[in-house]
Write a structure and sequence with these properties.
A 4-stranded antiparallel β-sheet has the order 1-2-4-3, with helices on both faces. It has a 3-stranded mixed β-sheet with strand order 5-6-7. It is of the alpha+beta class and 219 residues long. The two termini are 24 Å apart. The protein is built from 8 helices and 7 strands; from the N terminus they run H-H-E-H-E-H-E-H-E-H-E-H-E-E-H.
Length: 219
């Protein structure tokens, strides 16, 4: 499975079956995390067999069930932390999909207190979102998307690569499916910006990664 296929097939999953992840799959996923940390300077970590972060009232409110594995997005405090977390976190999410796993981005509905006990966080680092991980009861369902003309604009007739990038960006998971972003092609340059909403910087990083996969262009 390639990244673009993973984008098309991947949907958020909140309920997981009781099945351990194969060691070979964990090794591949850890290698991807290590590479992301190397190029980004983040301290992303894979936490396995740890159910306490999702065994709380707030997690049950988020309708999570059976989550005992997750990816913790950790890094140094800074203005770019959230966007980098979204960008590299989504790269790992798509790798997990290619390995036959299901995922769900989680910003609020988990116990940060429990997660902090399981995660290695240095004094100058913060824990942002986590990504639930495992074998889902289902493969999830597709979300509705806003029309492309609301999410992208160009000053010329949109070239094929831009349209393909937009199609991938429209499939990006965003908080409460808010899709508050705008991708612009003007004078031959592509830019992406958040247009408000919660977790907007994390969402922007996710959207940028999707656009780059679909278009083959670097933002």
């Amino acid at each position: 499975m390639e990244s673009l296929t993973a984008i098309e097939k991947r949907h958020s999953v909140r309920r997981y079956i009781d099945k351990e992840i194969d060691n070979k799959i964990l090794t591949e996923l850890k290698a991807e995390i290590d590479e992301c940390n190397k190029v980004s300077g983040l301290h992303i970590q894979l936490i396995t067999n740890e159910p306490k972060a999702f065994d709380s009232i707030i997690a049950h409110y988020g309708r999570f069930k059976g989550v005992c594995n997750y990816i913790a997005l950790v890094g140094k405090k800074g203005a770019d932390f959230d966007e980098k977390s979204g960008y590299y976190g989504e790269r790992i999410v798509l790798k997990a999909q290619m390995l036959g796993l299901n995922t769900c981005w989680v910003a609020v509905t988990f116990s940060k207190k429990a997660a902090r006990k399981a995660v290695d966080i240095e004094q100058d680092e913060v824990l942002g979102c986590v990504i639930a991980l495992g074998y889902g009861e289902t493969q999830g369902v597709a979300r509705k998307s806003k029309p492309m003309e609301e999410l992208g604009k160009t000053d010329v007739q949109a070239p094929d690569w831009f349209i393909k990038g937009m199609e991938a960006a429209m499939l990006a998971p965003t908080a409460t499916n808010q899709q508050k972003f705008l991708i612009t092609l003007s004078e031959g340059k592509v830019t992406a910006e958040a247009t408000g909403g919660v977790c907007r910087k994390v969402d922007l990083g996710i959207v940028k990664y999707h656009f780059e996969i679909g278009s083959g262009k670097k933002l």
